[in-house]
Amino acid sequence: MHNDSYQLMSAFVKCYLERYSSDPIQILDIGSRGLLGQRTYRDLFAEHDSWNYIGLDLEVGRNVDLCVSDPYDWVEIQDNSIDVVISGQALEHVPFPWVTMFEIGRVLRDSGLACIIAPSAGPEHRFPQDCWRFYPDGMTAFADFLRFRELEVWTNWKMRPWCDSVLVLQKPVMSIDEAASFRRRNQLLKAVVATEPILNTSYIVKQPNQISVIGLLESARMKEYVAGSGYGSNKGIIGWLDKTRRQAKTTLWSTAGPIIKVTQRTLSRIFRCFASLRSGAGRQ
User: Which of these, 15, 33, 207, 216, could form a disulfide with 57 (CB 3.0-4.6 Å)?
Assistant: First the structure.
């Protein structure tokens, strides 16, 4: 997880969760395993005693609290048990991300929030595979597919090379029929990618106390917050190197470009002269 992604998730916490700093909130981080030397999102939630951060991944490792046995069927987590689901720099590595999105929707409590950060650009980086890049329309498609409320979606094109896209969505308060429909659609998706048959349930009974402490929200306009805070402006050594590279490229072309053009014209004239001399010698 690169630094830009950390800053974006920090903005999500600032814009959407600070108002619930004293409330007990269950936070699930999808794809939480941290590489050596990299920061993790856990630091963003550690200072709030009432918040419980859970790192989920497929393999044991740094910053992992829970390993799931199936990437598309998290039987280890109950339905409607999580207030906030976050994920950064993980979805591009998932072969079937729409199934993962449905599992995110399943574990979220009604009115719970999800913040998904994924690259729209950048080089291939296989952990163990690299399948996708996401534009804003692709993020909106996830929200529409789930039938959840899209609070905001955007891409920060200044944050190179990854140009991360951000999706913030909220699970609606579902009726029993809506919850049953969501469950059936989720089971159908799981059946498509499952390696073994899945038993269908004929009905679902919605349990009480499955609504998050998070109230009905409107867009907190993370994009404006990020722009105003200077995130993604490529400051520091990386930004300096990038700026220096672009300036050097511009200077080189402005200096060498005319020389190259003159050289090309001169060589073209020389070749034409040789060609005319050869043709004249041939006629003699």
Answer: 33
